[in-house]
Amino acid sequence: MENNNWINQFEKPLIIGGPCSAESEKQMMTIAEEIDKDYVKVFRAGIWKPRTKPNCFEGVGAIGLNWLKKVKDEYGMMIATEIANANHAKLALEYDVDVLWIGARSTVNPFTVQEIAEALRDTDKIVLVKNPVNPDLDLWIGALERLSGQGIKNLGAIHRGFSTYKKTKYRNNPQWQIALDFKNKLPNIPMICDPSHICGNREGLFDVSQQAFNFEYDGLMIETHCNPDEAWSDAAQQITPARLKEILVDLELRQSDDPDAIYKTGIDNLRHQIDELDSSILDTIAQRMKVANAIGNLKKEHNVAVFQPERWKQIQENAVKAGASLGLSEDFIDKLLQALHQESVAQQNNIMIKKEEKI
Ligand code: PEP
Ligand code: MN
C-alpha cells in the first residue's frame, strides 16, 4: 500500500458532498447545481442503501448510475457511490464511477470485501473503505489489505464512527483513537472524515469536521440535500448546499508543521518540558507501585484481602476532588486511577499467589 498519491490531485482538503440517497434525476441535478463546485470536488449519492430494518427505502438501484453520470457530464464533478457486492462493483465500473466506497456494514464481512476486491481487480478507480460498524482496527485494515492484494492502488479510508448499544450524543461514536491508530499504522492511506454518520444530526457537524482537521485528516464527506427534512434516508443529518458552504468557509485547516523559527523554538522547548514531566510521572508511579507492593506484603502477613472497596472508594473521591481543583476532569481522573489501581491489585495478587506456591 505504498502509492496512494491520488489525493494529491485535489487541493487539500478533499470535500465529498451530495445526498445520502439518490431519489430522482431531478433531486440529483438540483443538488449538483446548488453545491459550490469550488469546494466540493466529488459528488456522492447512495443508490444501493443498506438499511437496518426491512421495508424501508433501499435505494433506487442501478437507474441511479445514469443520474450520477449526468451529474459528472454536466457539472464536471467526480462521482462516488457505495458498492456492497461484486455486481454493484461491476456496474459502477461500467458507468465510470470515479470513487467507490465500501460501507460500514460491508467492511465487517471479509467475504463481501474479498468479492468486491476481486470484482475491482487492478482498477485505477479510487476505492474508499469505511470503518466497520464495530470498533475493530484490524478488520478495517484487513479490508484495505484485501483490496491492495487485488492490485488496487488508489485506496483511502473513511472514518464514520462506531455503533454503540446505548445512544450517546453521537449516532456513531467517533472513538478518534482508532482512526488515529489507523493513520499511524497506514500513514500513506488518505483519511476522510464522515461527520454526517458520526453525528446523526446537523448541529454537531461543524465541531466534528474541525476536530478532523485538527487531526490533519485529508478530507470530509458530508451529506447534502436541497430539502433535508424530506430526504428519503438520513433526513436528520443532511444539510443544504448553502449550509455546507458556511461550514466549509468557517473551518480552519491545520498544517503538519511550520518552518517558522519562533514556532520551532517554542515547540522544542514545550516538548522538552513534556518529556521531563513524563519521566517524573513514571518515577512517581514506580514509587507508588513499590508502596503498593509493601502493602501487599503486609496484607499477606496478616491474611487480609487484596481488594478493599471502602479504601478504593475513598481514594477515588479524594482524587476527583483534588483533580477538580487542578482543572482535571472527573472522567480523566477516573480512567487514570482505574489504571493505577488495576496494576496495584495485579501486583498485590502476584504477591499473594507466591505465598500459595510456597505452601
Ligand atoms: C452512507 O454513507 O450513506 C452510509 C450508508 O454510510 P455507512 O456505511 O457509514 O453507514
Ligand atoms: Mn446516509
UniProtKB/TrEMBL annotation:
According to its UniProt entry, one GO biological process term is: chorismate metabolic process
Q: Which InterPro entries match?
A: Aldolase_TIM, Chorismate_II_sf, Class-I_DAHP_synthase, CM_dom_sf, CM_II_prokaryot, DAHP1/KDSA
Q: Which domain of life is it from?
A: Bacteria
Q: What keywords tag this UniProt record?
A: Transferase
Keyword Flavoprotein in record: no
A Gene Ontology molecular-function term?
A: chorismate mutase activity
Q: Where are the transmembrane segments?
A: none
Q: What is this protein called?
A: chorismate mutase
In this protein, which residues make up the domain named Chorismate mutase? 261-352
Which species is listed as the source?
A: Faecalibacter macacae
Its EC number is: 5.4.99.5
The answer to whether keyword Transferase applies is yes
